[in-house]
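Closing statement on the guanosine-5'-diphosphate sub-project.
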Amino acid sequence: MFDYYDEMGMSRAELLEKIQTMVKPARFEHMLGVEKAAVELAKRYMGNIYSASLAGLLHDYAKEVSDTDFIKLIETYQLDPDLKNWGNAVWHGKVGFLKVKEDLGLDNAEILRAIQVHTVGAREMALLDKIIYVADYIEDGRDFLGVDEARELAKVSLDKAVAYETRETVKYLAARNLPIYPDTIATYNAYIKVLNND
Ligand code: GDP
Ligand code: FE
Ligand code: FE
């Protein structure tokens, strides 16, 4: 992997140490798993390996930030006020990218954007957005019904993997009477068609 991150002026060892002050060990392992899966996808789909690595490693950086701190960030940055009606599941990406920017001084728009949309996706997703969205779902540590199907799809079509994952997420949330964030629906509508094409 990369030994030094110029944009943050930090060695990999320093970065890993910083991440570990933010998240529990199991989540840290997951983040390393997503980094590995993202690098594999970047190689397969000709993405930027450096960006895939760093975005994968950092995607859940803000997952253990407190609700109070997320509310403060929404106010400070004057984000969409509707965000306040949601919770950690949505905030750790849609707001969490700002924590990465603030804490680590990372100023790479593509990477920050991939972190921002990693949970809910978006109507239009860049290659890196799709790589992180899918890598999060299929990393080696994931074990749930359907994960192997997602892994197989990710080998043949990144868009199909995005569509499959979004469909499963919508099904999962609806089955539990959970609210579905509008971006999740937008992602579903933008990508679901590709599952019908060969
Ligand atoms: P993780 O951070 O590695 O656990 O994975 P994600 O960032 O993809 O998802 C975090 C949580 O958000 C999961 O429990 C998802 O089921 C949940 N989630 C994903 N999309 C939505 C949504 O549209 N609405 C709500 N309420 N939860 C969602
Ligand atoms: Fe996440
Ligand atoms: Fe994750």
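Strands lie at 4-5, 10-11. With this model delivered, the sub-project is considered complete and its resources will be redirected to Aim 3.
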